[in-house]
Design brief:
This protein is mainly α. Helix content is 72%, strand content 0%.
Amino acid sequence: MVETKSMGDRVFSFCNGLFLTLLAIIFVYPLIYILSISFSGTMAVLNREVFLWPVDFSLEAYKTVFESEAIGRAYLNTIYYTIVGTAFELVGTTLLAYPLSKKRLLGRRTFSFLFYFTNIFNGGMIPTYLVVKNVGFVNSIWSLVIPGCISVYYAIILRTNFENVPQELEEAAKIDGMGNWRILLTIYIPLSKAIYAALTLFFAIGFWNAYMQPLIYLNDTAKYPLQIVLRNIVISGSLNDLSNSAVGSGAFTDMRTIGETMKSAAIIVVMVPVMCIYPFVQKYFVKGVMIGAVKG
């Protein structure tokens, strides 16, 4: 039997679809606009002729960006920080979530409260900087990795996921002579692939988009990640050394236009890796987070 929708349901569906369509346009248009500017000619951008698609198609901005040593070095730095930071945060979060998921742990509730308390209240920027400075992590990758190597929020989600794993599996493993480390590596982690896929992407995006910590802790320009380089580009209005090379080659004639086209190209270059990876792991988001967020 086919269920017919009432007039109220049809009106709601229409309004809901219209609202979501407007939201999609609002969110997507800035990306389309930036992409169009990055592929447009300099005079078209200067005359404000670009709205939805490139005008006087040109790859000069991308050519100059990719020829820049600063962008290339920042790309390698960001990839390095993302890989190392994600690995440390996954390990740290797992080592916190696994013990807290065991009811036999003495003081389990107290430890959970103390960790959760730090998720709400913290010492602030200046005390954290003094601690990082006193341990000698300033201007090194460890200033970006160690202070945040444990995510309490995601540890709570992962802990709930571990609690849903049948205890019979752990008991059978102990009968076979397995210890806690082997049980964690061979039972709990393989049964939590979905949530680990989601956490990996969350952590990786966090390190890829990291801005405040590198700005505070890194002093050497050779160690800057992409976000800091992009920030310098946006603030200065031009790419400085990139602009000079372009002007010398006669590719651009207006410094303001150089800034707009190259800023747009740099923004797209920074966004491309995440945009390419996200569709392949999107299916794990809802599944992974819901597994850890709902107790079965």
